[in-house]
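ingest -> fold -> write
write: protein_1
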Amino acid sequence: MFKRFRRLRSNENIRALVRENTLNINDLIYPLFVVDGKNIKKEISSMPDVFQMSLDEILKECEELVLLGIKAIILFGVLEDDKKDSCGSDALSDDGLIARSLRKIKAKFPNLIIITDLCFCEYTDHGHCGIINPKTTSVDNDLTLEISAKQALIHAKNGADMIAPSGMMDGIVYTLRKTLDENGYENLPIMAYSTKFASAYYGPFREVAKSTPSYGDRKTYQMDFANAKEALCESLEDEKQGADILMVKPALAYLDVVKELSQNSKLPICVYNVSGEYALLKAGQKAGVVDYEKMIFETMLAFKRAGAKLIITYHAKEIAKILSQK
């Protein structure tokens, strides 16, 4: 006697009834990149259909996202080089790019969830994620915590719905939670970039965000991609410090980490389907060597199957359009 597994695969309706994981538009978070100026919508050569946009164009994009049913964005600021400095001052100002963008977007789209990327690499002239210690030429962890707390308050005061610190500083979640709570923002959630690897998959992002380090790399603060146990420790530590959502970044090459984390934490898990993953699929589509739409959905379901609840993805608009036709 043997088990006939094919009984539950005999037609699409039966397969749908027993399907363990599904993809929903509510799972999706769409990244947006805002620049100073007007009437700017510059496509990124390595990331087709992804743009740097001035705020007027961002508002048009948000309108389209709302009509598609996408409920959340993650917002990145992209500065010109002449506005950057050693400590990322623009990110610490109520007149800075992100602060101004938050006010405008929230005024027009009050129900759109705006998650802000909290970091300094897009705002510093050296391209690293915090203040540089001149003796070591590496990021000074504790000084960066101090300015990160200031940046968090700027985001909170100007309308952020959630803050996502991406710099991988030790103690960042504790620092932000304490600062937010003490200033009346105890209900503002933190999405921790709790397991962020030093990855080659970020390459195209550095073109769109203009955040390539001017020297060295980020291996002293982002994680060694060979380490799974350390990845789990990083995320569980962020949970202890007060994170509301845990993230694994990149996603596709790290599904073992997502699965392990899902089995050790009850918090919602987000994955960042990063620029390199997106660019590879787009290249396959352009070359005509893959069934692009099917591969998108197979990839997204792999994230869900591994244990992710939320997915940050540049495919979000395409997925929303496909889902609306089903």
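write: protein_2
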Amino acid sequence: MRYLQKFSLSSYIRKVGVLAIGAHPDDIELGCGASLARLAKQGVYITAVVMTSGKYGTNELIDRRQESYNALTILGCKKIIHFDFTDTQTYLQLNDMISTLENVIKHEIPHDVEIIRVYTMHDADRHQDHIAVYQASMVACRSIPQILGYETPSTWLSFMPQVFESVEEDNFNLKLSALSKHKSQSMRDYMRPERLRAVAQFRGQQVNSDLGEGFVIHKMIL
């Protein structure tokens, strides 16, 4: 938590908090799950916001919201908020998403918590919902000092991280445990533990670490 110390010292009366935003259930866990687990263990207050139900292309009887809640709880998220913006059509709801995120920041964060970082979608993602959530995040979170874009399978062709989190085995295992709660997505190739480990090993190797998660910088005030 070295890069959080400045904020915790300068605002010692308030808890340090981070906000994680995803377009669908499982986006947050895939992109920054191990990093959130690490921060939660260090006492950082984590708020997670999922913008859609993720039901497009999924059995209507499956409750992806419950899967998401169970998964994010494992990572140590203190507050978990789900919205029902229309899956695959969020680009038509951009203004409403901005207002909704602004409301979360203003009214849903405890008064004794200072959000100093946002984890959100990457701007070069090929999924239309991910792009829309990135755009909404950049506007709604404009007053937050740090905004990082995380890696998901739909960014793998173009993702070039500038910031890395060195991930310990226990935190990576919490990420795997969280993703295992998304049973509706278990058939997807990118959810296989060995594939997830390969990505973490590659990102770790880039910074001389065993395992890692990488992020692009959308905004960084030190």
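write: annotation protein_2
Residues 117 and 146 are 5 Å apart (CA to CA).
Confidence is low (pLDDT under 50) at residues 5-11.
pipeline exit 0
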